[in-house]
Design goal:
CATH class: Alpha Beta
Number of domains: 1
Oligomer: single chain
CATH architecture: 3-Layer(aba) Sandwich
Strand content: 15-25%
CATH topology: Rossmann fold
Radius of gyration: 13 Å
CATH superfamily: Response regulator
Structural class: alpha/beta
Strand order of the largest sheet: 2-1-3-4-5
Length: 127
Amino acid sequence: MPPTLLLIDDNAVQAATRQTILKRAGYFVIAVLSPERALEQLRNNEFPTPIRLVLTDHLMPGMSGSDFVRALRTFSPDLPVLVISGMAEAEDEYHGLDVDFRLKPLLPDLLLSSVHSLIESRTSANI
C-alpha cells in the first residue's frame, strides 16, 4: 500500500494539481479543502489508512496553516507536516511546530523530494 498523504488547500485547482503530481509518483492522496474538516477527520481517525504526511497551504479562510498545525500538534505531535506558502514571512508562524516550510511556486521535483524525504526520515526514525 502506498503512503497516504493528506493535502489541505482551499484552492481546488492547486489541490488538484498537487494531488495529480503526488498520485503519479505513487502516493495515495486525500485532498481536503477545509483545515477545520481535516482536523476533525484526523482527530476522529476517519481516514481509510493512516496518514503518513500532511501537506497544507498557509493562507486559508477560517483557519491558517499555522493554526491548523498548532491544533494538530495537541493530539498528533509527530505527524510530518509540509507547509507550502507564497509568503516567506509566514515561516516565522511555524517556529517550534516541527514542520518543513516551502515557498510557492513549488516545482514538482521539489514537492516530490520534500515529501519523500519527510516520509523517509520519519520511517527510518521509527525503525
